[in-house]
Amino acid sequence: MEAAGTWALLLVLLLLLLSLTLPASRARGHLPPGPAQLPLLGNLLQLRPGALYSGLLRLSKKYGPVFTVHLGPWRRVVVLVGHKAVQEALGDQAEEFSGRGTLATLDQTFNGHGVFFANGERWRQLRKFTMLVLRDLGMGKREGEELIQAEVQHLVEVFQGTEGCPFDPSLLLVQATSNIVCLLLFGLRFSYEDEEFQAVVRAAGGTLLGISSPWGQTYEMFSQLLQPLPGPHTQFLRHLDTLVAFTAQQVQRHQGNLDTSGPARDLVDAFLLKMAQEEQNLSTEFTEKNLLMTVTYLLFAGTMTVGATVRYALLLLLKYPEVQKQVQEELMRELQAGQAPCLGDRVRLPYTDAVLHEAQRLLALVPMGMPHVVTRTTHFRGYTLPQGTEIFPLLGSVLHDPAVFEQPEEFNPGRFLDVEGRFKKPEAFLPYSLGKRVCLGEGLARAELFLFFTAILQAFSLESPSSPDSLSLQPAVSGLFNIPPAFQLQVRPADHHPTVQTR
Ligand code: HEM
Predict the structure, then answer these.
(1) What is the pLDDT of residue 13?
(2) Engineering a disulfide at 50: which of 214, 380, 469, 498 sits with its beta carbon 3.0 to 4.6 angstroms away?
């Protein structure tokens, strides 16, 4: 008992000591208002780690769309809520708001390396290079589209094989989308039965869950204290380690059979060739660490984001059968029988496109946005944000901004259509964020979402073994990411378009 008391006292003293080393004072800049912080806890009384996003929304009701909070004793964050504030910062002052902030759960592994976590010159070079290589590999071109169409076809065949029996589509959907990114990164496509591939995809899921869980959020607040201690916050790291180890293994395989005369077969090849070119440059950013960390993040993002979004869109169609019917009618009317949908069909499918956008809006996959920092002292809305101030642009609050989207919690594809039924996209549709850090995979994600969604709906009628009323749309976990709930799906061949060929 006595020993426990001594430990508790020591812990409190340690926290107090650490919190005194804080750059806590607002006097260093003229920061937006916010709740007073307690010395050891920051704003823990106002912000529960399991419900950080909703806590921040609640605070914005009191302090307005731009306010300051303290996540634990060490992190001072300026929060941006709603379309106007996020647009003015990340859009109108793009350069100043283009720094990457902290993701404490991942920082130990990435340590400022790779395109997602890098800052300054390192980030500029890695971003430019990655975008160019993805374009050279066919993204935004016909080759990239064919690659996605071929994977969609594999998935449709596996769906067909379920012969109307209920199944959980989660793993298959992430495997299919992961295959696309694996082709681009490693030049590899895996069978859905491949156990190593299943382990990698599960590791990506475990990582997502870990960073979004209440423990992940607690870690974001108290990382310096929790880091040396064992506990649930460290368990997800073995998933992340699996992803890194898989990437390292693929890099090694490429190093073993690299053709230095090119051309690059995939992104790892391209990076290795660039490393060879820059061998003499002592300050090069094309290092093995940046290669490993860029590719690990792309593998993670390419695996988890699109699969989860398609899953949520399918769930919505089970919940709203009349919407599914309208999508299928449009597909039947506008697409040629027996031909796989292509990106060029988008303009003729405004309703389908609206449903997909509304699903993405409602899900708000990344509700808290990804953390930014200001790259220099920045004047914003009458405040002065010192260089390095962390910024949370709450993208969920943009996608659900009542000033733009009437009754934002309702599923209403009509909001993406004009009076003549043509597709329209409000400026506040920003699931990929905006500004200089805008999602690097946006083009790829948009193409995948459209091609997967339309091909599945062209081939099948979707049913649920349970009644639509009983299906919940609530995320299974809501934290840094909103992870849609699992559900059972039954597919039956749609009456139209019996066999499908790619164009
Ligand atoms: C539905 C799909 C996706 C959504 C909603 C999404 C959303 C986002 C968001 C919100 C950010 C943070 C932007 C910011 O810092 O303000 C981001 C960054 C990023 N995303 Fe995505 N993403 C998706 C798919 C993908 C895919 C498929 C890839 C790549 C294969 C990808 C790669 C990246 C990278 C590399 C960054 C960091 C960019 C940088 O820091 O310069 N994303 N994404």
Answers:
(1) 52
(2) 214
